[in-house]
Amino acid sequence: MTDRRVPVTLDLSTPAAGRRGKPPRHFADLTPAERVEVVTGLGEKPFRAKQISQHYYGHLTADPAEMTDLPAATRDRLVEAFFPPLLRSTRVMTADGGTTVKTLWRMFDQARVESVLMRYPHRSTLCVSSQAGCGMACPFCATGQLGLTRNLSTAEIVEQVRDAARALDRGEIPGGPGRLTNLVFMGMGEPLANYKAVMGTIRQLVAPVPDGLGMSARNITVSTVGLVPAIKRLSQEGLPLTLALSLHAPDDELRSELVPINTRWSVDETLDAARAYYEVTGRRVSIEYALIRDINDHAWRADLLGKKLNARGHGWVHANPIPLNPTPGSKWTASDPAVEEEFVARLRGHGIPTTIRDTRGSDIDGACGQLAAEEAS
């Protein structure tokens, strides 16, 4: 097997930026004190910052026409200072009777990202992107094959969430007015490689209105291919987030091919970090495993995975096998249903709680990166 080492810069201290430069400064990028500074710098009273925050997080709007409690003479100036346009929807695809909505966004610098909103009877989940492209180079992943363009800013991530929350609140998704309950960082990019912006987003989302969206941290999932130092740091944030580890193979030989970062941190090191996350947070870890036909779906690999998980204790993990959503022209495809069933049965035989992940959106290029790849081609 080829040793494909992936250079990774963990963004643990510096603001999100990229090759194309920083996005414009936005309200969601600023601390409450910085927002007051902007307001007073424009000659307004400090309390205007709280009013604007109520509109943005409470009413989910950045439209000056809807901010009727602000002086008409200053609305446009305040909105211009706080809310530069960051995202523009260029393509929207729907499935499942309109309850699954995939949006392709074009950023200020023409970079493209995707988000997917999925409404269920008792919850609504948004799959959000944290980077334009991805530097992890997983060969079966559409985003991984795009390469990394840049990190997203906190505001660029928050804006994806606010748009989805607003669509639900305004009754634009079938099922009547509702609220966004769940968030998964499983869109484009490796969230823990853009650590500062992702955590800045999460802190705002869980803050109570009007300082944030008031979401539950328990309903937010952060996915990673296994950046061990960042997993350790995440465990110290004091938030009951769910960690999802994209494992895809239980043996180093295969995982180094499917997830090249494995040449930096092995399967055992990655699983040890995931187990430590559970020890600190008490939050059960989700093991994501894309089932790829004749590649990683062998029964003996299910047995090996079960043994490795059990070797680290019981009750700390939940397995999520995922039927691969193949990209056009790719040699990678989903496992045969019978093979999938056997894989799941083997895991359950080891006592591992196992649930096949829902594959909503497969008919609208549901795997993140597919629309962006089409636009780029």
TrEMBL record:
Active site per UniProt: E114 (proton acceptor), C368 (s-methylcysteine intermediate)
Catalytic activity: adenosine(2503) in 23S rRNA + 2 reduced [2Fe-2S]-[ferredoxin] + 2 S-adenosyl-L-methionine = 2-methyladenosine(2503) in 23S rRNA + 5'-deoxyadenosine + L-methionine + 2 oxidized [2Fe-2S]-[ferredoxin] + S-adenosyl-L-homocysteine; adenosine(37) in tRNA + 2 reduced [2Fe-2S]-[ferredoxin] + 2 S-adenosyl-L-methionine = 2-methyladenosine(37) in tRNA + 5'-deoxyadenosine + L-methionine + 2 oxidized [2Fe-2S]-[ferredoxin] + S-adenosyl-L-homocysteine
EC number of this enzyme: 2.1.1.192
Residues where S-adenosyl-L-methionine binds: G189, E190, S223, S246, L247, H248, N325
Keywords carried by this UniProt record: 4Fe-4S, Cytoplasm, Disulfide bond, Iron, Iron-sulfur, Metal-binding, Methyltransferase, rRNA processing, S-adenosyl-L-methionine, Transferase, tRNA processing
Top-rank taxon, per record: Bacteria
Cofactor: binding details: Binds 1 [4Fe-4S] cluster. The cluster is coordinated with 3 cysteines and an exchangeable S-adenosyl-L-methionine.
First-level EC class: transferase
Cellular localization per UniProt: Cytoplasm
NCBIfam families, sorted: rRNA_mod_RlmN
Entry's family note: Belongs to the radical SAM superfamily. RlmN family.
Protein name (Swiss-Prot/TrEMBL): Probable dual-specificity RNA methyltransferase RlmN
Organism of derivation: Flavimobilis rhizosphaerae
Gene: rlmN
